[in-house]
Amino acid sequence: MLWMLAALRCWILTRKGNQKLQVIKLSSNNYALWRDQIEELFNSSVRINFPDAELDDSYGRDKCEEVTRFLEDGSAIAFAAIEGEKLVGWVWCHQIHRLDGFRIHIAEITVADKWHRQGVGGRLLERVEQYAAENGYSEIDLFVTASNQSAVKFYQKADYKPERYLMKKIIRNGENIDA
C-alpha cells in the first residue's frame, strides 16, 4: 500500500512539471556514467552541511570510490534523478540492523542547486520508500545536519521524525571548546 501511495505522489509530481525527469536505479554497471556529477554533489553536500570542515575536492572522489565498492558488493541501494543526459540528484542508502530489526538507512541524498524546490528530492525519497515497501522494510532512517534547516523541513514535510539526537562536544588541546 505504501509503495502505491509513493507511486501516486511520484506521478502527481511528474504531472506538475519535470515531465522529462526520470528516477532510475543505479548499479555498478551504470554508476560510472554519472560518477563525475555525483562527485560534484558529494562536494557540494559537504560544503553545505559542514562549512567549517577543511576538506578538498578529494572528499567527493573518495566517497565515489566507496560507493563503487558498495554497489559492486551489492550492499548499496542507489537511485538517480536524470533530466535528459544529466544527473540532477541522487540518493544512496543501505540496509542496517537495529534492535527492532532491519531498516533502510539513507546515507546521502543530494540535489543539484538549480534543481532545489522542484520536487527532485521528493521523487528520490519516494523511490527509496517504494523500494523499502517492496522489499519488506518497515522503517527508513537518516541523519540530517541540524543547521541545514531547509533539509530538516524537507524531511519533516515527508513525515520523518526525530528518533535520537546526536550530540557532540568539541575538545581541543585538552580544553573544552564551545561548539
Automatic annotation (TrEMBL):
Residues 36-178 form the N-acetyltransferase domain. CDD domains: NAT_SF (cd04301). Keywords: Acyltransferase, Transferase. The keyword rRNA-binding does not apply. One of its GO terms (molecular function) is acyltransferase activity, transferring groups other than amino-acyl groups. The keyword Nucleotidyltransferase does not apply. It holds the Pfam family Acetyltransf_1. InterPro entries: Acyl_CoA_acyltransferase, GNAT_dom, N-term/lysine_N-AcTrnsfr. This is GNAT family N-acetyltransferase. The lineage of its organism: Bacteria, Bacillati, Bacillota, Clostridia, Lachnospirales.
